[in-house]
Amino acid sequence: MELLWLWIPVLGSLVLAEVLWTLPIDQDQWPRPEDVELAQGYLTRFYNLSPRGRASGRRIRSTSSTVEQKIREMQTFFGLRETGDLDPTTLHVMKEPRCGVPDVENFSFYPGKPKWKNHTITYMIAKYTPDMKREDVEQAFRSALKLWSDAAPLRFIQVKHGKADIVFSFARRTHGDFFPFDGPRGVLAHAFQPGQGTGGDVHFDEDETWTAGRQGYSLFAVAAHELGHSLGLTHSRDPSAVMYPNYRYQSGAQYALAKDDVLGIQTLYGKETRKVETQPAPKKCDPNFSFDAAVMIENEIVFFKNRYMWMRTMQTTYWNRLRESHSSTYLPSISSHVDAAYDIPAKGVAYIFTGHKYWVVRELKMKSHAGSIYEYGFSSQVRQVDAAVHISESGKTVFFTGEVYYRYDERRRRMDAGFPRLIQTDWPGIPRRVDAAFKLDGSIFLFSGTQSYQYDFRQNRVVKIISANSWLGC
Ligand code: 0D3
Ligand code: CA
Ligand code: ZN
Ligand code: ZN
């Protein structure tokens, strides 16, 4: 201990080149001063080696081991023998022209090129870090996800419960996988390639200081890199790439995917095509017209077909005013057709289903959040819901899917026992399948094909049948 302190002033005066000189290698030939300079520049540029000026006397020993560490990192990356020495082979690689040349593919994939089959990917934050405010953590992840979804046709949806494709968490040391973290510095985080279970998950080393600003490691920058792994990219040799193996974050404003990252992600998922509404409006008065979904939101009945919606406003006792628009105008997060929708007037909330996702909408045109339909307790065989209707009198929501229906208890937040049951058994007068449903006063209006059935749920019978599109004034 004492001895070490005595050495500090002496070591402190050493310059980096001298540290490199003292590395245990054949000292007569290697390295030549110009090679030392080259190596120094190389490690500074590509391996974040701090310039000599920053290494205070007290840290000079660690500077020496840092240089060795950086050489090791570089050797690992290039598949060289990991010696930590500036040996001839290592120097040779350092002298090779490095990328910077466009059109050179530097990105790479996992063996077998695993990727997500569905381009709508869910994520969940399972554990937060105490280093940052929760909303800053969420913002860091949103910004990192946006880098990738801007480059390829990918959409990310945050879910708050249940299962998610990508689960973010913070942990230290041993944390339940085969890759324990290493304390401060060194490894910052890791992520699993796309797949089931832990596939896609991202773990951050809680022993690092995470930040939304300057000090410590930028959660945004590290998340951006890890998400590359979660989406199927491995490390890139391009030093400007986000997928380059080492952290070298400067400032948030200029942090973006490099061309190499974009080429990599587009090789996996294709080019981003900005979805412009090209689909023509459905011919609503066609005799074969049917609905995808229907719901009452506040004082409007909203009907969905393909990517279109019609809103019928109720004023006093008669229906007037019919508005037509693209669903995306009012529901920006919804870009496909709507399968089913229901509202709970007492909560002022509507739930909109598309595929295995649902959205919670608080007023049309307001920010919504999403979840997985399996949170409701549907069997995994259910791929989408055909129709949904909430019966406020009983606090139950009825879901129609295929030839069966489920009954969900909104208060207990679970499916009632004994479901699913056949639609035909319990809904006399209603066809085997239902496309859409909404409730108005004492009736449930059920849509099947071209017909609209007014069903009195107290008497359990159909009281009126009209054509579905007569709701649209046809
Ligand atoms: C890592 O921990 C990567 C994470 C990473 C890499 C580049 C940009 C952001 C996050 C594991 S997948 N790399 C180590 C690292 O950069 C080698 N450590 C900190 C350092 O300053 N060298
Ligand atoms: Ca670490
Ligand atoms: Zn882990
Ligand atoms: Zn990495």
Walk me through what this model shows.
The chain has about 475 residues and is of the alpha+beta class. The protein has 3 domains: about 90 residues, Orthogonal Bundle (Muramoyl-pentapeptide Carboxypeptidase, domain 1), CATH 1.10.101.10; about 150 residues, Collagenase (Catalytic Domain) (3-Layer(aba) Sandwich), CATH 3.40.390; about 180 residues, Hemopexin, CATH 2.110.10.10. It is about 20% helix and about 25% strand. The chain has 10 helices and 24 strands. It has a 5-stranded mixed sheet with strand order 2-1-3-5-4, covered by helices on one side. Helix 6 packs across helix 7. The protein is elongated and about 95 Å long. The N and C termini lie far apart (about 90 Å). One zinc ion (ZN) binds next to helix 7.
